[in-house]
Amino acid sequence: MRHPRPPQPPSPDRSAEVRRRFAEEARSERPDLATLCLLVGAEADGALDEPALDAAQVELDRLAGELPFRPGTPRAWAEALRDLLGGRYGFHGVTADYQRLESSLLHEVLRRRRGLPIMLSVVWLEVARRAGAPVYGVALPGHFVVGFGTEGGGTAAERVLVDPFDGGRLLSGRDAETLVAGATGAELRESMLEPAAPLEVVSRVLNNIRAWAAGRPEQSAVGLWAIELALLLPAHAARLRYERARLLVQRGEFSAGAGELEAYAEVVGAVDRAVAEEVRGEARAARAMLN
Asked: Whole-model pTM?
């Protein structure tokens, strides 16, 4: 069986347009999760042009149209999504999916019906939302799941958790505790069940892509655009700028990286002079590489 080629980056002009739209959507009053995730995909894959973006949205609409009309209770909604997406269409994840960039790209998850927990959860969220379900994402430590019913609270009858990575399996309280304990060794806290906002979800998706690229030096370009998209989000960690600077140096862009390191040192110097001096030392070392 012939495997499709890995995603190839878009042209510089296309990338600039994708980033402009990503920043605009991220700063809108109600950021659209599917649109943001698809724009992440367009930065990864130059083949994801405008018709392909539209086709992915149409596919989400089509799947939503196959759900029963207003199933009723949160549990009924959860079962309907499980039967449709996990059952009829076979959306699920396996351990090997963590090794593929495509597992973090929404258009590829829709095509392959495989992906990371968070991206499969995006499919569940977007299909359920289009059908009118009371649905929200739950960013458990190390494993993203989906909630139906009362956001962040309520009784067992009012809130149902499902695991899209496991085909939409309905989770008991003990199941959720086991997921958290397996990821962190900690106990499940009520605060972990709070709904995740769209920008939080997108930030976590980009973190996953950065982590994937960090272990693959030959994929430093992927790590760079993932950082640069994260920097377009309204709220981001200042340390991302330091991470970007170091990645530029690693890629041999010594002058640009040194300039970024110096700029970061100015910012961090207001709170920690020792760290600022260490960063300035990194900048001097980077500039020395130009000689």
From this structure: 0.91
